[in-house]
Amino acid sequence: MRSRRKALLLLALLVLLVNLPLAHSTWTRSRVERSGTDVTATVTDTREVTSDDATGYLVEFRLPTDIDPEQTLWTARIDAPTHELAVETGQLDVRVLPDQPSAYVVEGQVSGRIGLWITLVADLFLLMIGFLLLRFRGRSAPSLELVATEDLVRCKPGSTLERIDGLTYVVEGEVLEISDDLVVLDLGDRHVRVHLDGHANPAGHQQPVRATGRMVG
């Protein structure tokens, strides 16, 4: 149980990391379109670029000094008509957040789709992993049956299945189920049903415990 939760939490973190760039880009563009200021930028250079996801022109420009006092050189991919106008006039229409020069949208800007496709493929792959984790939980190994020969004791978190002698084993795991004379321990890759046989169990649900006893199945 514990290991499966950790795997699902890790999977959720990966989903967040995969989608964060696209989400941030979409959020920034929305802010610019909603709260941005229209300015005229100065074109410093242009060149044709070709890639698998889009063909266009790369333009380099500087924003007005009142928007960007540091006069950073920004870039954007633009379409052919916008490129022709930029070459002819040396200017470019840009919508930008006044307090964040790095957040801008250029008139005639061309957005490639390769980033979107990569994100979608990665999401599909992670979704399949999540489905398999949920679909086959607890089925990687059959359950075992242990008859306790002494009282169970609390232990540190983790899982252990160790043979002491003959059919005597020590098992450590997280309590998954509790009944009057039965405790089910989750070892991550399998469950162990511990029959108390009159012995005490000090652990509650989802608490780690050690059981020593005779393996019967």
Structure write-up:
The chain folds into two domains: 2-116, no CATH class; 144-215, no CATH class. Helix 1 (2-35) packs antiparallel against helix 3. The protein is rod-shaped, with a radius of gyration of 31 Å. It is α+β, with helices and mostly antiparallel strands and 217 residues long. It is 30% helix and 38% strand. A five-stranded antiparallel β-sheet has the order 3-2-1-4-5. Strands 6-11-10-9-12 form a five-stranded mixed β-barrel. The model has no long low-confidence stretch (mean pLDDT 86). A hairpin with a 3-residue loop joins strand 9 and strand 10. The longest helix has 34 residues, at 2-35. It has helices at residues 2-35, 80-89, 114-135; strands at 37-50, 55-62, 74-78, 91-97, 100-106, 144-148, 153-154, 160-165, 168-178, 182-186, 191-195, 208-215.
Task: Report the helical percentage.
Answer: 25-40%
**What sort of overall outline do the alpha carbons produce when their principal axes are compared?**
rod-shaped
Q: How many domains comprise the coordinates?
A: 2
How big is the Rg? 31 Å
- Which percent range describes the beta-strand content? 35-45%
Instruction: Give the structural class.
Output: alpha+beta
Number of helical segments with 4 or more residues: 3
The number of strands is 12
Give the uncertain stretches in residue-range form: none
Give a quick rundown of the structure.
The protein is α+β, with helices and mostly antiparallel strands and 217 residues long. It has helices at 2-35, 80-89, 114-135; strands spanning 37-50, 55-62, 74-78, 91-97, 100-106, 144-148, 153-154, 160-165, 168-178, 182-186, 191-195, 208-215.
